[in-house]
Amino acid sequence: MQWTIDRSISLRLNEQFFYVIFYPLVHIIGISSNGQGGRIMIFGMPWWVFMVILFIFFSGYMAFRAMRAERALEKQYIEREGQVYMKRIEEEREQRRQEQKEVTN
Fold first, then answer.
1. What pLDDT score does 2 carry?
2. DSSP of 51-98, one letter per residue?
3. What is the reported pTM?
4. What is the 8-class DSSP label of residue 45?
5. 60 — alpha (psi -120 to 50), left (phi > 0) or beta?
6. Nearest to 29 by CA among 50, 59, 6, 3
7. What pLDDT, in 10s, does the model give residues 11-40?
């Protein structure tokens, strides 16, 4: 007898979970068929329109990430070219110093 009471309580808890948690969540998000032949609507739009909008935002995020990565690569390239340029200037200074020492001697 105890088992049947516990089982009925657990069934009631499952029903309560559905009505207390899942049902309001579905209505907050706005997922419903609205009697339109089973077409699922999210926020009053067909599900595929919602997915297209999500993919647009995802693609914008990925473009932003690519732009940041490209900017970092450009910065590294500019830094490397600057180092090469500074090394060449330093070599020319050393060469001029050597020439001046030879002239003074």
1. 46
2. HHHHHHHHHHHHHHHHHHHHHHHHHHHHHHHHHHHHHHHHHHHHHHHH
3. 0.49
4. E
5. alpha
6. 50
7. 565 566 666 666 665 665 555 555 555 567
